[in-house]
Amino acid sequence: MSVSTKAVVLLSGGLDSYTAAAIASRKGFDLYALTVRYGQVHAHELEAARRVGRSLSVCEHLELDVDLASIGGSALTGNAPIPKDRILESTKIPATYVPARNTVLLALALGWAEVLGSRDLFIGVNALDYSGYPDCRPEYIRAFERLAILATKAGVEGDSFRIHTPLIDLSKEQIVRSGISMGLDYGLTHSCYDPGPEGRPCGRCDSCRIRARGFAAAGYSDPLG
Fold first, then answer.
1. What whole-number distance in Å separates Cα of residue 28 and Cα of residue 7?
2. Of 1-10, 65-74, 118-127, 207-216, which gets the smallest average pLDDT?
3. pLDDT at 1 exceeding the cut of 70
4. Edge-to-edge, what's the strand order for the sheet holding 162-164?
5. Cβ proximity of 201 and 191 under 8 Å
6. Could you give the CA distance from residue 183 to residue 100 in angstroms, rounded to a whole number?
7. I need a labelling partner for 117 at 20 to 30 A (CA). Which of 68, 83, 110, 173 fits?
8. In this structure, how many other beta carbons lie within 10 angstroms of the beta carbon of residue 112?
9. Residue 25: in which H helix or E strand, if any?
10. How far does the chain reach from its first CA to its final CA, in angstroms?
11. What are phi and psi of 10, to 5 degrees?
12. Planar angle of CA 51, 129, 94, nearest 5 degrees
């Protein structure tokens, strides 16, 4: 069995991925950040990912291009308007769901982890923020861990991979409190699905409203306003 302190962290530039990566660092892992340009309309998050990576002193920051926009099927890749002022607690999967996105991202992270000799992956998925994405559920993560053993040379030879999801059962309030307790600068992040030309958050998309609710509940001001 291999032992490594390396961890591949999926870094989008958002509040959740920043917090999850910081937790990985606190646990003693050496961070290898992976950011994917998948055709997202909110591309301001890519520069945010670079800022966050620098602030965490990652060992390496890999950026990959995977054109999910060509597949379509999501408002986040330009196929429909970004929903605004939606009922956040709705059980309906929103138009911002990107088909198989987390499966694609985790597969890329898994491949890089195997090359690095890492057996630990971190992703900032959260099952309690009402987004309704099926690939943010605990049962999905556990299923991917089983797949990783079957699909890799390392797994066949006796190693196992762990997909760390430190935020999966936390509310946005708890995530904000955790990050602030670690001294994170959330002004580096970007969360909005439909920012203005200069990257200013719209304040009305699901992501903006969930973020605002989290900061308000935690009793802190959002540095992005």
1. 10
2. 1-10
3. no
4. 60-65, 30-37, 6-10, 120-122, 162-164
5. yes
6. 33
7. 68
8. 18
9. helix 15-26
10. 48
11. -80, 120
12. 95
| 219, amino acid identity | G
- Which three-class secondary structure state does DSSP give residue 162? strand
Q: What angle do CA 151, 156, 162 make, to 5 degrees?
A: 65
For 6-218, the fitting CATH number among 3.30.230.10, 3.90.1570.10, 3.40.50.620, 1.10.760.10 is 3.40.50.620
Quick one: tokens of 189? 């992040």
Distance of CA 105 to the CA centre of its chain: 9
Rounded distance between C-alpha atoms, residue 118 and residue 116, angstroms? 5
Confidence band, pLDDT 50/70/90 cuts, at residue 198: confident
Give yes or no for a contact between 123 and 20, defined as CB atoms under 8 angstroms apart: yes
Q: Which of 80, 86, 85, 114 is nearest to 99 (CA)?
A: 80
Cα 223 to Cα 136: distance, rounded to the nearest angstrom? 26
For residues 199-210, give the mean pLDDT.
Answer: 94
Using pLDDT thresholds of 50, 70 and 90, give the confidence band for residue 132: confident
130 has a pLDDT exceeding 70: no
Say if residues 97 and 133 touch (Cβ distance below 8 Å): yes
Token pair 């053993």 is at which residue?
A: 149
Sequence-separated (6 or more) residues with CB below 8 Å from residue 159: 1, 2, 119, 149, 152
What residue ranges do the domains of the chain occupy? 6-218
Give the pLDDT confidence of 30-55 residue by residue, as tens digits.
Answer: 999 999 999 999 889 999 999 999 99
- pTM greater than 0.85 (yes/no): yes
